[in-house]
Amino acid sequence: MLRCIQPQKVIQPFLRNQHALQKRTLASISPDLENAYDVVIIGGGVAGVTLACSLASRPSLRNSRIALVEAMDLTGVRNWEPKPDNYSNRVVSLTPGSMSFFDQIGVTKHMALDRANGYRDMQVWDGVTDARIHLDSAILKDYGSKGLKENTIAYMAENLNVQSAALKRIEECRANGSQIDLIQQVKVAEIEGPKEEEKKADEDLDLHDWPTVHLDNGRKLKARLLIGADGINSPVRNFANIDSLGWDYDAQGVVATLKLDPTRPNNTAWQRFLPTGPIAMLPLSEGYASMVWSTTPAIAKALKNVSSTDFCNLVNAAFRMSHIDLKYLYKQIDMQTFKPACDISEEYHWRESVAKKSMNDQEIFDREFSLPPEIIQVQDKSRASFPFRLRNAESYVSDRVALVGDAAHATHPLAGQGMNQGLLDVECLSQLLEKGATEGQDIGNIHLLRQYASERYLRNIMMITSCDKLHRLFSTDAAPVTWARSLGLNAVNNTGFLKAEIMKYAMGIEQTGEFRH
């Protein structure tokens, strides 16, 4: 079983006698330094567990001592078992690039793959003008990607599925000799920098400049390399005195798990850009989808509190009605009691009947299949909301410190790339550390870590700014802007090469970095 270090439990130091590695590993640690680690990762979310898993899976790092510190109890996550027709509302859109990374580090085989639903078709359209882009990854074979093994745009998976699989993979690595400890149910009380008086004359192992992590159970960990995978309010980033620049959007994302009309196929991702923010519906399995609706805080609060029937009708309306009709429906909801002044269901069905009144059967059929399946039910207790933020750390590294995932950057989720960018951080950093260890370098040295920052910083900035510009472009119904963006959408939709390039970028296969296999 994966060794979970609980408060006050003592770790047994491991020993090696290869003199050639003494200066670069903890091979000759004496018992009084048993809390010294080559890598200490703070944060047991997806970024943290996959990083620990990636490091433990690499031959040149398998003898390194690694600690993963998490404030929560991960036992339930490790033992997660999927329930039929019941999905977590915390899901992630994984690119084929991310899934390939999971394959490389041995995580995929521990995932419940029947809960990682791939889709190859995506419909994106303007909620004001109805200008549309249809992305079907099958066209990649016509534009220079004939060697592509698959044409899946992305896989929808629950966060728990990924975390559980990574924890099981860590357990497997430990069984094969990896030196990795999970220290859970303890919080970081303080992180302390080097003290000159602690400097030792020991030429084999000098720990004086290693950060010291003080845990709230009194234990202290020494880290050759301290990695922050500890979220947007990262204590590791604060310790390193790295500023995080950005702003909070005046918007929230409402998430929910939806049950769909069973007569319709569910193999397409749908996203409609409304003036208040985009709404997306992403297929989880046959008959079920995950929704993310970006909107104002007031509307988000209403969506979480209206009845389940009204909620389903409002979601259907958000995909099918004009933004003017939607504005009318919002105004009918009392923001104190969340009771509507009219029958939302009756309003929705009446407006739908009016929209179809002048259409013949073929036109009604075409309209129906240009829109997502109707929602017939929302999973109980699956509605929740979270604020949108844009952040980017001034630097991703400091001496003996590196940041990954949300600790380094956060972006608007409209492109579904936040988690994938974090996994690219993890992949890049772990490959770089493997390279450094193979060459006998000190993996905590700033000169090595700067290569990671150089590889990832610009790429993350490009994604962050692209998502921000898209958000601003579509958050208005001003006539000149809507006219210009409609021209752009129609032009892209009619240009196969441009659509292929967009899909390659979204799938994580457009270009590989120096440290990516």
Automatic annotation (TrEMBL):
GO terms under cellular component: extrinsic component of mitochondrial inner membrane
Indicate how the chain sits in the lipid bilayer: Peripheral membrane protein
Matching entries from InterPro entries are given as: FAD-bd, FAD/NAD-bd_sf, Ubi_Hdrlase_CS, UbiH/COQ6, UbiH/COQ6_monooxygenase, UbQ_mOase_COQ6
Q: In which pathway does it act?
A: Cofactor biosynthesis; ubiquinone biosynthesis
Functionally, this protein is described as follows: FAD-dependent monooxygenase required for two non-consecutive steps during ubiquinone biosynthesis. Required for the C5-ring hydroxylation during ubiquinone biosynthesis by catalyzing the hydroxylation of 4-hydroxy-3-(all-trans-polyprenyl)benzoic acid to 3,4-dihydroxy-5-(all-trans-polyprenyl)benzoic acid. Also acts downstream of coq4, for the C1-hydroxylation during ubiquinone biosynthesis by catalyzing the hydroxylation of 2-methoxy-6-(all-trans-polyprenyl)phenol to 2-methoxy-6-(all-trans-polyprenyl)benzene-1,4-diol.
Q: How does this polypeptide assemble, per the annotation? A: Component of a multi-subunit COQ enzyme complex, composed of at least COQ3, COQ4, COQ5, COQ6, COQ7 and COQ9.
Designated name of the protein: Ubiquinone biosynthesis monooxygenase COQ6, mitochondrial
